[in-house]
Amino acid sequence: MALDLEDDEDIFAAKAKKQEDQNERFVIPENAPVLPSIMSGGREAELIVNVGSEAAVLYNKPLPESIHWAEYDIDLALLTFVTYSGKVQGLGMTIHKPFRKYLSKAKQIMMIYMENSVQPKMIVPVKLVVRYTGI
Amino acid sequence: MVGLSNVMDFVRAKTQGDLMLAAGSTPEKVKVAEKMGLLKPSQPLVSEISKTKLLFDTKDYVEQVTRENGLTSAGAVADKMRKGTNSGVQVFMEDMGAEFASTTKYDGFLKAIGDRAKADPGFIDQIGQELKDPAAQKSFEDALRNDPTKIQKLIETYKPGQLASLGVIAPVTQTSAMPSTPQTVTAAPTTVSAPPTAVSPVSTAAAPTTAAQPSQAAPAPTVAPASQAMDTKQEMSGLAAGFSELIASMTNEELREGISPKFVESLAGGMALNANKMGVSEADTQAFVDRISGDPKLQEAIAANLKENPGFIRRMAKASQDSGTDTQDLFKDMARSEMEKLMANPELLANKGYVKKLDDGLKLRDGLGKLMDENGPLGKLWKGLKEFLDIDGMPSFGGMDFMGMIKDLINGIAKMFGLPQIVAGNSTTPMHPQLTSQLERSSMLAVKGPDGKFTHDVHQGRQMVKVPNTISVQNENGEMIDVIPTEGAKLIAKSSTGAVTLRVAQSINSDGTVKSVKTVNLSKEGYESYERQLKERGATIATQDVSQRPKVETVRLDHKTGAEIPTPDAKPNDLDLTRKLAQNPNAPMADMGLDMGMTSG
């Protein structure tokens, strides 16, 4: 097949397809059931973000469902998690301004279960999707 | 152990294939089945049966049994075969199986059970209901051990409800029939050393729902409803337990011979079932099964590829039956994402490189399980992982994605706590220092004394107590102090005079792992002596000089207001993270004692 030096349509198509795939993969289903927030029911949690935009959530009681991905909504200052079965679970605290700069650049969040607040028992990195519309 | 489900499968056995299915089989199970009169010694030995090609034609076989039993679906057969799995009788048989097989004391009782089971297929379920309560099982076992002849007579004339009415077991109360309260909610361990719970978040989620169910426990139906549709997952679930043992016992050559397109179909069902258990959606797993079932060419390609790697089949079978250890739990979500990928792309099973990668993952899972079994929770996992990652003799693990992910995880945590950070949360006891402390302890190990032990016995009053072996070294004030020699000790400061500040073990466990850590200040001579004595003990000490690195800044925020919470030992300026970062966007790498010398990827 000869080289086509003019038509770059395929480049955009590939990029659009990739974006489309990602959008499909990380979209909260309509009417998704909502679980009580992570910081509820006696569960303690900590959000940690460092200057390298690495983030972790430590929690001391097992979560009801495994987390598939996380969403940071900059407009609403909320960090929300989506489980593998499509349920939504908020962190349960406002993402205050000092976090914003670093968390908005983070690519993933380490979910670290600290049994009894002491013993690390599960470490799972989950993808972080950042939403920002500027409203 | 002898499970009733296995033994009862002998009851139902009509063909050689039935026997093969019944045998998930150890000699012990066969022995008990013989004593019950359910298996004639002249029948083929299970080990021979396991080698038949029938093993690999499960789908045909299940369909055949379906017809013979007048059932409407293979799923119903599988359900029937699972019958009794949760009954009290099974627990009872598990408890006493070894005694049954090894002595003649219970032979009369076993024969009575076998006779009744053959005459009345519902017998086991009836007695199972009475033995559901753990207290009832216990009192029945006690009664049987005390007077097996009496219980034998009772079984011969048994009528439902008779065990309680004759006082053999305590009457089952309403309370005892209730589903048990979820352990993870009510019995959370309060100490670090408490046995770890292997409950995954998913199963924990299900627990409260179960607890909320009405207390009346309905007896399980003996035969599935006639309308039940053919269900590959259900079918495989019924078959998998017995097969995994058989597969584990087969040689690679035997496995190669049996891998056929039919076998691939069955395998797909089993893999889908496991993927389901991991949390992959039913729609995805069903699509995987449908795709393989409907494509004979793909089945052939997969079979040809799997013949090259029979060990993979063996490990898959084993993994499907394992409940998983804590270590395996640590990484199970990663395994799930791999299964999601496979379910979406079944042709990957025909790819040699991919199957090898998946097999490497299973080997790693096994390896992690062993590490965890030997060492306990993550504190020791870290040590194990370090050894694991550095071992040259495990080329099959080299370069695989799983290893990269694990390294990245550990490094990621270490790196995270080595940079200035902001923390907020509702924890009464901050967890992040606990995590860093865990990792620091885990990176250290006591060094054995000249006698090859970590401890020695010392009289304390009338008692002998174990005391860690120590070495005496000079501190910065010229006094001699005892220090537990510690591999992985960290040098955190070195003065111009040569005095050294070290982090070493303060207390240790019997296996040399570190319970707590302390800081010691040694004179130049003291440190040289410390190093020398460790070398004499054959230990290579990789102390890391972290004295030049600044202390990590941690800003803690009130999670409700966003206001900074001053820490007692922090200087006011240290809290002004925003200002500092504005001045120096490339903030230097700091250290919390977490740089273990690992390289990423």
What is the element string of chain A, with H for helices and E for strands?
HEEEEEEHEE
- What overall form of chain A do the CA principal axes indicate? globular
The CA-CA distance between the termini of chain A, in Å, is 49 Å
Q: What percent of residues of chain B are in strands?
A: 5-15%
Strand percentage of chain A lies at 35-45%
Category from helices, strands and their pairing of chain B: mainly alpha
Distance between the termini of chain B: 43 Å
User: Oligomerization state of this entry?
Assistant: heterodimer
Tell me the layout of helices and strands.
The complex is a heterodimer of chains A (135) and B (601).
Chain A: H1 9-25, E1 34-35, E2 45-50, E3 55-59, E4 67-73, E5 78-83, E6 88-90, H2 97-103, E7 108-115, E8 119-131
Parallel strand pairs in A: 1-6, 3-7, 4-8
Antiparallel strand pairs in A: 2-3, 4-5, 5-6, 7-8
Chain B: H1 4-12, H2 16-22, H3 27-35, H4 46-49, H5 58-68, H6 74-82, H7 88-102, H8 107-119, H9 123-130, H10 134-146, H11 148-156, H12 162-165, H13 183-186, H14 201-211, H15 232-249, H16 252-258, H17 261-278, H18 282-293, H19 296-307, H20 310-321, H21 326-330, H22 332-344, H23 352-375, H24 378-390, H25 401-416, E1 421-425, H26 432-442, E2 445-446, E3 455-460, E4 463-468, E5 471-474, E6 480-483, E7 486-487, E8 490-494, E9 500-508, E10 514-522, H27 524-536, E11 554-558, H28 577-583
Helix pairs in contact in B: 1-2, 3-7, 5-6, 6-15, 7-10, 8-11, 10-11, 15-17, 15-20, 17-18, 17-19, 18-22, 20-23, 23-24, 24-26
In short:
Chain A contains two helices and eight strands.
Question: What does this protein structure show overall?
Answer:
- The complex is a heterodimer of chains A (135) and B (601).
- Chain A is α/β, with parallel strands linked by helices and 135 residues long.
- Chain A contains 2 helices and 8 strands; from the N terminus they run αββββββαββ.
- In chain A, strands 1-6-5-4-8-7-3-2 form an 8-stranded mixed beta sheet, covered by helices on one side.
- Chain B folds into 4 domains: 4-182, no CATH class; 250-376, no CATH class; 381-431 and 549-601, no CATH class; 447-536, no CATH class.
- Chain B contains 28 helices and 11 strands.
- In chain B, the strands form 5 sheets. Chain B has a 3-stranded antiparallel beta sheet. In chain B, strands 1-11 form a two-stranded parallel sheet. Chain B has a two-stranded antiparallel sheet with strand order 2-7.
- In chain B, strand 5 and strand 6 form a beta hairpin.
- In chain B, helix 1 packs antiparallel against helix 2 (16-22) and helix 10 crosses helix 11 (148-156).
- The longest helix of chain B is centred in the middle third of the chain and has 24 residues, at 352-375.
- Chain B is extended.
- Chains A and B meet through strand 2, helix 2, strand 7 and strand 8 of A and helix 14, helix 21, helix 22, helix 25 and strand 1 of B.
- Strand 2 of chain A pairs antiparallel with strand 1 (421-425) of chain B, so a sheet runs across the interface.
